Amino acid sequence: MTTYSSLALRGLAAGGIAGAASALVQLLVTEIPLRAALAVEQAREPAGDGHAHSHGEEEVVSRGVQVVGGMLGVVIVGLAVGLVFATAYALSKRWFTERTPFSRSFALGAAVFGAVALLPWLKYPANPPAVGDPETVDHRTALYLGVVVAGLAIVWGASLLADRLRAQSQPVRVTGVLLAVVAAVAVVLMAFPAPPDTIPADVPVAVLWQFRLSSLAQLATLYVGLGVVFGLLVDPATRRARAGRVAGSPA
Amino acid sequence: MTSPAASLSAVRVPKWAFAVSLLGLIVTYLVLQENGLALGASSELLHEFFHDGRHALGVPCH
Q1: Within 10 A of A33 (CB to CB), how many other CB atoms are there?
Q2: Which of A65, A72, A75, A83 is most worth mutating to test chain B (most B CB atoms within 10 A of its CB)?
Q3: Which member of A4, A60, A211 has the closest CB to residue B48?
Q4: Does any domain span residue B22?
Q5: Domain assignment present for B55
Q6: Closest-approach residue (CA) in chain A for B57
Q7: A141-163 tens-digit pLDDT
Q8: What is the pTM of this model?
Q9: Is residue A251 part of a domain?
Q10: Which of A46, A182, A241, A251 is 20 to 30 A from B47 (CA-CA)?
């Protein structure tokens, strides 16, 4: 018998594991363009306007602490998102109900990745340090959250539509849902204003794109990883297969 | 709302589940988006501590 608390604990575990994997991608991949961007930021300092972070004061937190703290932050976000994910999974009564728990979790993870990571990434791509006017941060945060909410609404609407088209054949249903999602994504991408900040000329294009792709890789590791690990933890088939292998192995 | 196959996922979701999810969202907000709205001055420290993670996960940082 599955209870909500057992799902929530597995959500925490899956979120912690996916968050740790994402933090590892950060350490090994994202930190490389991030360091390059910080070097660009540092090169500006003698010119006058100071370090964008410390607002002219001395550094609050050292670089080493920022690297570790950033990784810790990703793990904490993983744990928190894992809890929310488990609740969404428990509530998703019409989400691929005929599939196995693993494929339901995997599909939910992929959909969450599309809604809260890929869609905002397409509209407002991740920026390294040295890009971004502190004056516009509240405006940019509001736009970013708006796209996240719109993305979640699209996923919600797609599941409603799939349910509504239940009487149709599977090819018709899939095509209908796909068309509606593409149209909704196009509307969101056109309706939201362009990113307010320009990219400063001293930020190399290669660094910018390496950073953006690293960020996307990290987001995919976090959200798709969460769906996969949660699926492994909730699907009884995982344990059955392992039990069978252990029983069948020589003593 | 309920589909015929709903019995497959017959997990009773208690009320406190929503409090737990809200907590998850608040923690995510504090780590990724806090710019001084909720915590005031101490958010500066939080901001700098989680700095690399915020950039890496693509949220607007500064």
Answers
A1: 24
A2: A83
A3: A60
A4: no
A5: yes
A6: A215
A7: 899 999 999 999 999 999 999 98
A8: 0.88
A9: no
A10: A46
Domain count, chain A: 1
Question: Left, alpha or beta for A178 (phi > 0: left; psi -120 to 50: alpha)?
Answer: alpha
Nearest-CA neighbor of B57 among B28, B27, B32, B30?
B32
Q: Is the ipTM of this complex over 0.85?
A: no
Q: Is the CB of residue A160 less than 8 Å away from at least one CB of chain B? A: no
Model confidence over A38-97: pLDDT tens digits?
999 888 876 555 444 544 445 678 888 999 999 999 999 999 999 999 999 998 877 777
Distance CA A86, CA A4 (A): 8
Tell me whether residue B42 is in a domain: yes
Distance CA A53, CA A134 (A): 9
For testing contact with chain A, the best of B1, B16, B54, B62 (most A CBs within 10 A): B62
Domain count, chain B: 1
Which of B33, B47, B56 shows the shortest C-beta gap to A74?
B56
Assigned domain for B16 exists: no
Q: Is residue A249 part of a domain?
A: no
Please name which of B28, B38, B58, B49 lies closest in space to residue A121, comparing C-alpha atoms.
B58
What pLDDT is stored for residue A57 in this prediction? Answer: 45
Q: B62 — contact with chain A (CB < 8 Å)?
A: yes
Task: Note whether B29 contacts A: Cβ–Cβ < 8 A.
Answer: no
Give the range of the structural domain holding residue B39, as residue numbers without chain letter. Answer: 31-62
Mean predicted confidence (pLDDT) in A223-236: 96
